[in-house]
Amino acid sequence: MTEPINLKDIEKKAYRFTFNDGIYDLTYATLLIMFALAPILRELIGLGYILFLVLPAPLLFLLGIRYISLPRIGLVKFNQRRKTTQKKLAILCIILVPLTVILVLLTAVQIFPGSYGTLLGVYTVPIGAAFFAIAFLSFLAYLLEFSHLYAYGLIIGLGILISELLHDPVAPPWNSVIAFGISGTLLFIYGIIELVRFIRTYPLPKEENSIVN
Amino acid sequence: MSTKKKKTMENNQPLDFIDKIIHEPARLSIMTLLYVIESADFLFLMRQTGLTFGNLSAHMSKLEDAGYIQVKKEFLGKKPHTMLRLTKKGRTAFEEYRNNMKQFFNDLPT
């Protein structure tokens, strides 16, 4: 043994192992792709587009964890410190996620085109929403110790701004498609690669009990 | 046992303070992992320790016999599911083992 045993590192390693499956990347990519498609879906199906915006990502996450991740890596319950952090996060998400979605929608779907603030003109809401998304996801990344979330924050923050900047040169809905669709697709491809690697590295155990079903 | 004989035995076995149940590398790795988390199932421990099903099962039995871990078997649907956690005795034993080893290496002449 060449390195000293550090109990904190062992706990961190076990914790990060649960983020190893690409499902978080796929979930976030799905959310971005839905943001990209939101204006088109809105034109096609009216208010029902909100279902497509809100449902696919959490559904993919839950099904992915249940049917892909857990049967391959098993179940773990972390210590009290992590549990307390998760409770705080849950409360924070319940309050802030709907607020974030509303702010993004204001920008992406152009619901209130004439009612932006005066200080930064039409960029007030996009800048506010971008800052909010980056700050919120960075805070989550810090609490969860999951560094991908910093990148997710930047992608969505910049996406909001790019969507607004492209509003004149590229007519809606294509500004949203470009702003969120490209990053969403790239992230989706990355998530698929991670998922395939995960499935290859951790095949379903033959002799072991599985927690699913 | 006479005092003289006892002293001789102590001199012959200077590492007697080491808990041999914990000291075995595979069991040490199981104990360390369970020390830093609350509980985990059999599969998670297999993945983290790199042990095979048979190996983990054997070491788990030894730790359970020593009263260091609690094994909770249950059924989720039709499939068996085994959760493991450190007992209070196991936690204390691991902390003692850790302190003893630290002390031992600190006391070694450089």
Description:
- The complex is a heterodimer of chains A (about 210) and B (about 110).
- Chain A has one domain (about 5-200).
- Helices cover about 70% and strands about 0% of the residues of chain A.
- Chain A has 8 helices and 1 strand; from the N terminus they run H-H-H-H-E-H-H-H-H.
- Residues about 210-213 of chain A have low confidence and may be disordered.
- Chain B is α+β, with helices and mostly antiparallel strands.
- Chain B has one domain (about 20-100): Orthogonal Bundle (Arc Repressor Mutant, subunit A), CATH 1.10.10.10.
- Chain B is about 60% helix and about 15% strand.
- Chain B has helices at about 5-10, 20-25, 25-35, 40-50, 55-65, 90-105, and strands at about 40, 70-75, 80-85.
- Chain B has a 3-stranded antiparallel sheet.
- In chain B, a hairpin with a 2-residue loop joins strand 2 and strand 3 (about 80-85).
- The longest helix of chain B is centred in the last third of the chain and has 20 residues, at about 90-105.
- The model of chain B has no long low-confidence stretch (mean pLDDT about 85).
- Strand 1 of chain A pairs antiparallel with strand 1 (about 40) of chain B, so a sheet runs across the interface.
Summary, kept brief:
The complex is a heterodimer of chains A (213) and B (110). Chain A has eight helices and one strand.
Q: What is the β-strand count of chain A? A: 1
Shape of chain A: globular
Average pLDDT, all residues of chain A:
81
The CATH homologous superfamily of chain B corresponds to Winged helix-like DNA-binding domain superfamily/Winged helix DNA-binding domain
Helix content of chain A: over 70%
Task: Note the run of SSEs of chain B as H and E.
Answer: HHHEHHEEH
Backbone shape of chain B: elongated
Structure classification of chain B: alpha+beta
Quaternary arrangement of the chains shown? heterodimer
Count of beta strands of chain B: 3
Q: Are there runs of chain B of 5+ residues with pLDDT below 50, and where?
A: none
Q: Just give the CATH class of chain B.
A: Mainly Alpha
- The rounded Rg of chain B comes to 17 Å
Radius of gyration of chain A, Cα only, in angstroms?
19 Å
